[in-house]
């Protein structure tokens, strides 16, 4: 497994004098946030990154707001212990239910995926569909964000409880997944949407399936692209952009490291070394 002691020793060498070289922390319930990680690799190739997947407690989309807020606090606390310079909540459910609260509680820049995604959507269309986890859809976070930016736009949302488990089980090309997707898209297609927002960072993994079911004129919006662009702007404003070579990406999960590593290889193009982090009521411990 990846040695955290080596990583932390490296951080100790520059975190106080060279905060630009500190890593960006990114978290999601599972492999969904890898869509954001891939965009970080493309748009900010010099940044060191710590990725956390809360795989022991997924899916987030069926959790209560109190649970999501607790999980988010625990993860950001752990990321702060790793001396990150910024946190990207690569999880729409956490962004919808916990972002504003944790921004007030933690003295660190924290970015969510919903506002960047909403801004991109209104630049593309006027009849916008959002597919999301049930919790994100119920929160109306995307609808509120989109209408606040462009009140004339119409928005329809569909909660998709089966998508995250199917993606985590690597069943993207299973015929059943196409059937589920068709059922979720049907009410949106009836509204003649011109734009579809991936309201969960897992969902870009389903792009081939969704594209096969959507009319060619419907634009797909991946908020991962736009939250990383916002991250780049924030780093510039704070003079925190790294110009040195990055450290290897560090991966941690709350569930089974082997399972995450096996799932992640197809999205990353390499097999990640993954460590396990255990959250308890009284402490956060690392297992090696």
TrEMBL record:
<dbReference type="InterPro" id="IPR033134">
    <property type="entry name" value="Asp/Glu_racemase_AS_2"/>
</dbReference>
<comment type="similarity">
    <text>Belongs to the aspartate/glutamate racemases family.</text>
</comment>
<feature type="active site" description="Proton donor/acceptor">
    <location>
        <position position="200"/>
    </location>
</feature>
<feature type="binding site">
    <location>
        <begin position="28"/>
        <end position="29"/>
    </location>
    <ligand>
        <name>substrate</name>
    </ligand>
</feature>
<protein>
    <recommendedName>
        <fullName>Glutamate racemase</fullName>
        <ecNumber>5.1.1.3</ecNumber>
    </recommendedName>
</protein>
<dbReference type="GO" id="GO:0008360">
    <property type="term" value="P:regulation of cell shape"/>
</dbReference>
<comment type="function">
    <text>Provides the (R)-glutamate required for cell wall biosynthesis.</text>
</comment>
<dbReference type="GO" id="GO:0071555">
    <property type="term" value="P:cell wall organization"/>
</dbReference>
<feature type="active site" description="Proton donor/acceptor">
    <location>
        <position position="91"/>
    </location>
</feature>
<feature type="binding site">
    <location>
        <begin position="60"/>
        <end position="61"/>
    </location>
    <ligand>
        <name>substrate</name>
    </ligand>
</feature>
<feature type="binding site">
    <location>
        <begin position="92"/>
        <end position="93"/>
    </location>
    <ligand>
        <name>substrate</name>
    </ligand>
</feature>
<keyword id="KW-0133">Cell shape</keyword>
<dbReference type="GO" id="GO:0009252">
    <property type="term" value="P:peptidoglycan biosynthetic process"/>
</dbReference>
<keyword id="KW-0413">Isomerase</keyword>
<dbReference type="InterPro" id="IPR001920">
    <property type="entry name" value="Asp/Glu_race"/>
</dbReference>
<dbReference type="InterPro" id="IPR015942">
    <property type="entry name" value="Asp/Glu/hydantoin_racemase"/>
</dbReference>
<dbReference type="Pfam" id="PF01177">
    <property type="entry name" value="Asp_Glu_race"/>
</dbReference>
<keyword id="KW-0961">Cell wall biogenesis/degradation</keyword>
<dbReference type="InterPro" id="IPR018187">
    <property type="entry name" value="Asp/Glu_racemase_AS_1"/>
</dbReference>
<dbReference type="InterPro" id="IPR004391">
    <property type="entry name" value="Glu_race"/>
</dbReference>
<comment type="pathway">
    <text>Cell wall biogenesis; peptidoglycan biosynthesis.</text>
</comment>
<keyword id="KW-0573">Peptidoglycan synthesis</keyword>
<dbReference type="GO" id="GO:0008881">
    <property type="term" value="F:glutamate racemase activity"/>
</dbReference>
<feature type="binding site">
    <location>
        <begin position="201"/>
        <end position="202"/>
    </location>
    <ligand>
        <name>substrate</name>
    </ligand>
</feature>
């Amino acid at each position: 497994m990846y040695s955290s002691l080596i990583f932390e020793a490296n951080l100790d060498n520059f975190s106080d004098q060279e905060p630009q070289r500190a890593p960006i922390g990114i978290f999601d319930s599972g492999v969904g946030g890898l869509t954001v990680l891939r965009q970080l690799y493309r748009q900010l190739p010099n940044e060191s990154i710590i990725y956390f997947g809360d795989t022991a407690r997924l899916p987030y989309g069926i959790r209560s707001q109190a649970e999501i807020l607790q999980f988010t606090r625990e993860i950001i606390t752990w990321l702060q212990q790793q001396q990150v310079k910024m946190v990207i909540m690569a999880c729409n459910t956490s962004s919808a239910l916990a972002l504003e609260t944790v921004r007030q509680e933690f003295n660190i820049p924290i970015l969510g995926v919903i506002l960047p995604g909403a801004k991109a959507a209104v630049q593309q269309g006027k009849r916008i569909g959002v597919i999301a986890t049930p919790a994100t859809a119920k929160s109306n976070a995307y609808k509120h964000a989109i209408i606040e930016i462009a009140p004339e736009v119409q928005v329809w949302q569909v909660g998709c409880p089966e998508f995250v488990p199917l993606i985590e089980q690597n069943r993207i090309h299973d015929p059943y997944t196409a059937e589920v997707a068709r059922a979720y898209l049907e009410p949106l297609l009836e509204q003649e949407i011109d734009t579809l927002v991936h309201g969960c960072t897992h969902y870009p993994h389903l792009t081939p399936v969704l594209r096969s079911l959507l009319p060619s004129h419907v634009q797909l919006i991946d908020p991962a692209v736009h939250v990383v662009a916002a991250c780049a702007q924030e780093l510039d404003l704070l003079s925190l952009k790294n110009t040195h070579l990055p450290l290897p990406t560090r991966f941690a999960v709350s569930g089974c490291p082997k399972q995450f590593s096996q799932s992640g290889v197809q999205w990353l193009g390499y097999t990640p070394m993954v460590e396990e982090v255990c959250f308890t009521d009284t402490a956060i411990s690392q297992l090696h």
